[in-house]
Amino acid sequence: MPRQILADGMVAEGLTRMGNTASQTGAVAIIAAMITPALLLLGSASLVASALIRMARVVDRARVLAAVAHEGTLDKIGVTTHQLRSWLESHAQRARYAERSITLLYAAIVVFISTCLSIALDRATGGMLSELPVVLAVSGTLLLLGGGGYMVAESKLSGAQISEENRHAVAQLGNARDSATGS
Fold first, then answer.
1. Prediction pTM value
2. Which residues have a Cβ under 8 Å from the Cβ of 11 and sit 6 or more positions away?
3. Residues 6+ apart with CB under 8 A from 53
4. 12 by DSSP, 3-state: which?
């Protein structure tokens, strides 16, 4: 069976009538190497979608609270000026966390695309750029980690904010019940 030594020093056994197995093996190896960054890219895109949804919720709720502040109808939702200010500041912080997360996750997407391209470029240059895909992949992973970290911070703040709003609502219900019964 014919043997051929590939550019990376590997030996390809047997050439077929369908073409040069060595060049097909090289192409398959390049594509296989590009799959991992592509999967990380998909994960990043999924996290971006989640972060955008969370950002939209923060913005919607902040707009409702801002409208209450502008209209001066604090009694409509039963809050003091201090409570409303606190809730708006909390929403602003959540929005900053979500925005930072989105920025880092989009950057991770760009870096993972660059990683895929750098793998092909490394192969095209005969391995002269072998460190570039590794550096890019690690950079993209760190960006992904940072974006995820900001989403964890936003989620924790969201949980604390929901707890505060629930405590306030329960207290309002207690006050309404007490005034209705005359206690």
1. 0.74
2. 3, 4, 5
3. none
4. strand
